[in-house]
C-alpha cells in the first residue's frame, strides 16, 4: 500500500512562491487552495502544501524556523533524467533561487541543489537505473 506524503512548508508570500514553483514545472491542485495555502503536486502520492506563514503557525506551538538562517529539512526530489535536474535547478536560479551546494556528479548519480525564495533547501537527483542493477 502506497503511503501519501504531505509536506507542509511555510512561505512568506504565497502567490510569489506558487509562481516560483510553477516556473520549475510543478502543477497545483485547486481543490486544496485558498488564501492560506496551495497544494503543489510532486508525484502521484507526494504533495507540498505551501502555507502562508501565519496560517502555518496555527499548526504548531513551536517557533517556526527561519529557513534563511537555519536548516530544518532538505526536500530531495528524484528526477527522470540529468536534463530534468538541470532544467529544474536552472529555472529555480533564474527565478531568484540560490545554489545551496556544489553539483555532485558521480556518473551514476547526479545531484544539484538550491534554496527557494524562503530559504528552504531542495535537491534534484537523477540516479541511473542501470547502476542499480550492476
How are the elements arranged and paired?
Layout (H helix, E strand, L loop, with lengths): L4 E7 L2 H9 L4 E2 L8 E7 L2 E7 H4 L17 E5 L3 H13 L3 E8 L3 E7 L5 E7 L1 H5 L1
Parallel strand pairs: 1-4, 5-8
Antiparallel strand pairs: 2-3, 3-4, 6-7, 7-8
Number of discrete domains: 2
* Mean pLDDT, all residues: 95
Global shape? globular
**β-strand number:** 8
Under CATH, the homologous superfamily of the largest domain reads 2,3-Dihydroxybiphenyl 1,2-Dioxygenase, domain 1
Question: What is the H-and-E element order?
Answer: EHEEEHEHEEEH
What is the rounded Rg?
15 Å
Strand content: 35-45%
State the CATH class of the largest domain: Alpha Beta
CATH architecture of the largest domain: Roll
CATH topology of the largest domain: 2,3-Dihydroxybiphenyl 1,2-Dioxygenase, domain 1
What are the low-pLDDT stretches, counting only 5+ consecutive residues below 50?
none
InterPro entries: Glyas_Bleomycin-R_OHBP_Dase, Glyoxy/Ble-like_N, VOC_core
Protein name: Extradiol dioxygenase
Domain VOC: 3-127
GO molecular function, one term: dioxygenase activity
